[in-house]
TrEMBL record:
Protein name per Swiss-Prot or TrEMBL: Arginine biosynthesis bifunctional protein ArgJ
Organism: Nitratifractor salsuginis (strain DSM 16511 / JCM 12458 / E9I37-1)
Compartmental location: Cytoplasm
Main location: cytoplasm
Active site: residue positions: 189 (nucleophile)
GO cellular component terms given for this protein: cytoplasm
Keywords on record: Acyltransferase, Amino-acid biosynthesis, Arginine biosynthesis, Autocatalytic cleavage, Cytoplasm, Multifunctional enzyme, Transferase
């Protein structure tokens, strides 16, 4: 048994971790951060998951070249406004230059870098290197760190939980994330840095992280696009001396899932977060295909924005997904309201009015029972608004 509590101030709560964020000139507004770090005062075991995009950005290529997806280190440097993607070997060399410039007081061991922003431009190395002098290596400024990695995000994303174990030991786990656009359930487009003082065995970290990501970031979609820079790092320094696999796995699942929901809530121009629950599929794999297609569908997303209970868009998306399905067996529900089955193909005025009320909510569930088997899967999406087009049409300006 264990008890989980929510704490304020994110990364600042975790033993042995320090963090800060400043403006080094990548953003024109000096009040907005664009460079941040997270470090531990002792060596950490680190596990990572990266984008499935074949054009991986230079920071990911650098990390994979030197360390792989599981390694020991204690330091992450992150910047906004520039993705350092599609920059070739020069982009990797720029990272080497920046990391080599870290001062001795940073106490960096096997440092890695993460970047987010516009694709196709090399990092302004001089600005970033000069910015290193402005960082406070002994700060615990989670707020500034979380804000410094934002791009089109409208709010910071940081969480922290304390977990008390049955033996009166406890550990803490905290995370910051960024993400609002280019979000697709393929290691969704975002950065997430997780720090814990739990004594997690090194050989368990990758499995635990992959499970948590599969249940959170890999189930959300804002626009169906996958970026070049998606990264999740889990850093465990063992400072608390406490660990319980079940408790840690639950805390990790909870923090990644809640951050994923915050990313959806902040989807560029989004107004609604919707769970797409597919049941009765021939198997879990086909349920996942259907649910993912629903969360990615532009027609479904625009119907959500228009608050139009047009079940035809739901049905046609399932039918186009290529899975086994039959209109005679299909049932569609908005929350618990039956929208469609073979005996109720048209919405009567009473059910349509109820459907409109559901669709006006900030969050609700669309459940599709395919009647083909026992497979199930839930993905999560949001609506697509005029604001999304405006934000992305002006992304570089």
């Amino acid at each position: 048994m264990f008890t989980l509590y929510s704490l304020k101030n994110g990364l600042a709560n975790v033993q042995g971790f320090y963090c800060d964020g400043i403006n080094c000139g990548l953003r024109p507004d000096p009040s907005q951060g664009d460079l941040a770090f997270i470090r531990s005062d002792r060596l950490c075991d680190i596990a990572a998951t990266y984008t499935t995009n074949r054009f991986q950005a230079a920071p990911i290529r650098h990390a994979l070249r030197h360390y792989g997806k599981r390694f020991q280190g204690n330091f992450i440097l992150a910047n906004a406004k520039n993705a350092n993607a599609m920059t070739g070997e020069a982009g990797i060399a720029d990272i080497e230059t920046i990391l080599a410039a870290l001062p001795a007081e940073a106490e960096a061991q096997n440092p890695v870098m993460s970047s987010t922003g516009v694709i196709g431009y090399r990092l302004p190395v001089d600005k970033i290197v000069k910015g290193l002098d402005k960082l406070d290596w002994h700060a615990k400024n989670s707020d500034a760190t979380a804000r410094a990695i934002m791009t089109t995000d409208s709010f910071k994303k940081e969480l922290c939980f304390e977990v008390e174990l049955e033996n009166d030991q406890s550990f803490r786990i905290a995370a910051i994330a960024k993400g609002a656009g280019m979000i697709n359930p393929a290691m969704a487009t975002m950065l997430c840095f997780i720090a814990t003082d739990a004594a997690v065995p090194a050989d368990e970290m990758e499995e635990l992280l992959e499970e948590a990501v599969s249940l959170s970031f890999n189930r959300i979609s804002v626009d169906g696009d996958t970026s070049t820079n998606d990264t999740v790092y889990l850093m465990a320094n063992g400072a608390s001396g406490a660990y319980d696999r079940e408790a840690f796995a639950e805390a990790l699942r909870k923090i990644t899932f809640e951050l994923a929901m915050l990313i959806l809530k902040d989807g560029e121009g989004a107004n609604k977060v919707v769970a797409f629950e597919v049941t009765g599929a021939a198997n879990d794999e086909e349920a996942a295909i259907a649910a993912t297609n629903l969360s990615n569908s532009l027609l479904v997303k625009t119907a959500l924005f228009g608050e139009d209970p047009n079940w035809g868009r739901i049905a046609s998306t399932i039918g186009a997904s290529g899975i086994a399905c039959d209109e005679e067996k299909l049932s569609i529900y908005y929350d618990d309201l039956l929208i469609y089955n073979k005996d109720n193909r048209e919405l009567d005025p009473e059910r349509e009015e109820k459907a409109y009320k559901i669709m006006k909510k900030d969050s609700f569930r669309i459940r599709c029972d395919l009647g083909m088997g026992t497979g199930s899967f839930t993905s999560y999406g949001c609506d697509l608004s005029y604001e999304y087009v405006k934000i992305n049409a002006e992304y570089r300006t």
